[in-house]
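Amino Acid Chain and Its Fold in Token Form
===========================================
Scope: a single protein chain, as residues and as a discrete description of its fold.
Amino acid sequence: labelled as such and written in the usual single-letter residue code.
Position: the record begins directly beneath this header, with no further notes in between.
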Amino acid sequence: MAQQLRAHVATKVIPAFDESRGAKWSTFAACCIRRASIDILRARQRAARYTTDRLGDLLAPDDTHDERIERLADEVRQNPEQFFNGLDPAAVLAVLDPGAAGTENVSPSMLHCTRCRMRRRVRNLAVQLFA
């Protein structure tokens, strides 16, 4: 902490001191150092709240639905026309395989819209699957 305070004084406090404002250097420096030390302590407390050990406990993988999601993804990959009917086939192909032949004429906005629609349909399928 002392090293952080020294760096703060050297980079922020000394350049900010203005003698014409009427404050003594010791008063100005004491106020700035007090504020900086509080900021450093708060930052350390925030960092201590979110250590990787605690996050590992909070974000433990939930694999209860993994098999169903994998099956759904396989079905969508094998039969995209079944799930994405009504969408422009060239745009669907451009989303699934960006370098495929016949996808050069798909505009970026069409690609974006198709990608959003595909996501929405897959999300709705997953919601139905897990309901």
